[in-house]
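Suppose you are handed a protein chain with no further information: no name, no annotation, nothing but its sequence. What can you learn? This example shows the usual starting point.
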Amino acid sequence: MPLRIVRSTPLWIVIDKPSGLLSVPGKGPEKADCVVARVRREFPGATGTLMVHRLDMDTSGLLLVALDAAAQRDLSLQFEERRVHKEYTALLSGRVTQSEGDIRVPIRLDVDRRPHQIADFTQGKTAHTRFRVLERGAATTRVWFQPLTGRSHQLRVHAALPPTLPCGRPGGLGCPILGDPLYGDGSPAPRLMLHAAVLQFTDPATGDAVRFESPTPF
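A reasonable first move is to predict its three-dimensional structure. Written in structure tokens, the prediction is:
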């Protein structure tokens, strides 16, 4: 499963990551294979930590990797300051009733069930997702997501949360992403049906906005 490099420059590369490949190494030798390890092999002159952001192992799509420490700092700051534009496509289990909207439910790690994330309006971190229904099937809904924050599992949690939470506040879509082993409903799927389809950021070398698109593979 070779890396598909979408664009390569002296400071950064954009990769179209396949589902099933880790972004960074996990614990144990069986989880050493990852995007960072492969980039270091293919770009032996790369320095620094390389990783600017991450995609979950089972999520496919566009991933940005820096090739030196200065570029990594610049690009990471763009993500931190929410100056990076990201769009995802997902296939959800069930029929979403709303056509579009915003989900604003803060989330945090469930320390008793790592790595699960849960809604928490007291201790959770701000999480904001825009969505738009692209297509409704008999038992599924294809959705466009734009995460305006970058919390762990944000899209997966916001999709799965019920429309009205037990506390009475507005929740999520009530339709988990197909193939989600953590938040899914067990409906069969060949993989996590979530794809990072659009990525736009500022090139540290030129100051120009650069935009990349990846066709959704499902």
